[in-house]
Amino acid sequence: METTNLLLQNIDKIHTTTMGIDRIKKNLNLDVLDVVDYIKNIILDKDCIIYKNGKNYYCEINNIRITINSYSYTIITAHKMWVFNIGWIIFQYLY
């Protein structure tokens, strides 16, 4: 919960680079004017799962995973996730 609170408390610091905007638009097949605002709204969704692993925050919702650097609050990337259930094994695939 502390990880979630820390990211949400610093929501105004979240930003990305020009290359990051292009990468996120491509990966999520987006056609929005403000990618950062779009990502912030995803993070603020009550169903978004936020966790920290190493130097990055990960935000997951609706088969999307967003990666944010925990020191600079830079959005690194975002990917669609595919979950495959083959028998008792569940695979998670990012593309």
Automatic annotation (TrEMBL):
It comes from Anaeroplasma bactoclasticum. It comes from the Bacteria. This is Uncharacterized protein DUF3781. InterPro entries: DUF3781.
